[in-house]
Amino acid sequence: MNGRFLPIGIQDFEDLRTRGCIYVDKTELIYKLATEGKPYFLSRPRRFGKSLLLSTMEAYFLGKKELFKGLAIEKLEKEWIQYPVLKISFGVNSYENNERLKSRLDSIVSENEFRYNIEKKSDNPAERFANIIRAVSEKYNQKVVILIDEYDKPILDALYTDFEEQNRQELRSFYSPLKDSDKYIRFLFITGITKVSHINIFSGLNQLNDISLDRKYSSLCGISESELEQYFEPEIKTLAEKQEMTAIETKEKLAQMYDGYHFAHDVEGVYNPFCLLK
Fold first, then answer.
1. In this model, does residue 2 exceed pLDDT 60?
2. d(CA 47, CA 241)
3. Label partner for 199 (CA 20 to 30 A): which of 22, 53, 166, 238?
């Protein structure tokens, strides 16, 4: 053992950093996204680090500078402005029917109303969501950051059932304030597994920048070949010794087994981080 800690299954950036786990630095790309645009969409397979990415973005926009010591963004960011963050995840439940989705939407808006002390003015989740965005922005005199994880899970859970279209319509209504609230939004990042359904889910949000196949961000999630060598050389050496192989043979075997993702033409292969670290 080399005494280092691999972040297997850890999806919280602050927890990862305070534990002293190895972190593959994606913060230069995060800074690039934050400074060059506002509404983004990213599609990646399951267990590919999407939740950790959003957690890292959350810590950055909350101004938690101490967590980024030694990372690329520490030198890039000069202001460290604190923004109010609305983080929404649909990964905490299953949505085989419409009632489960309605219950989750109510929980999402209730949690944020409580967190920011916003008065509930409607029973409609979309209207409450719109009110939260506006009220939080006005309360803090600052634009809002919105991070949405697994936007499509309620549709995928109900796929090919009578509830699929109901869940789709429910989500379309809930996401509808995102366009009209643009003046209150500093940054919007949405992740999911599929690209297909996002076209008609975010009705009217035609400025959403889909970076799923953008070569600049091909390694935004996951671990690239060069990152594997840069960050995990001691682990590769240990694995090679246990398998009675050379380091070169070990890397070739790892690439054969786990380097199966290329999200753009002529870029490095990207490893699924969960499978690789396990």
1. no
2. 28
3. 53
Using pLDDT thresholds of 50, 70 and 90, give the confidence band for residue 196: low
Confidence at residue 194, expressed as pLDDT on a 0 to 100 scale: 86
Residue 208 identity (one-letter amino acid): L
Instruction: Judge contact between 112 and 87, C-beta under 8 A.
Output: no
DSSP string, 154-187: HHHHTTTSTTHHHHHHHHHHHHTHHHHTGGGEEE
Query: pLDDT per residue over 225-252, tens digit each?
Result: 899 999 999 999 999 999 999 999 999 9
Contact of 135 with 144, CB cutoff 8 Å: no
Residue among 202, 187, 156 nearest 87 (CA):
187
Q: Can you say how many angstroms the Cα of residue 40 is from the centroid of all Cα atoms in its chain?
A: 11
Place of tokens 């050379």: 246
Check the CA dihedral 207-132-77-49 and report its sign: negative
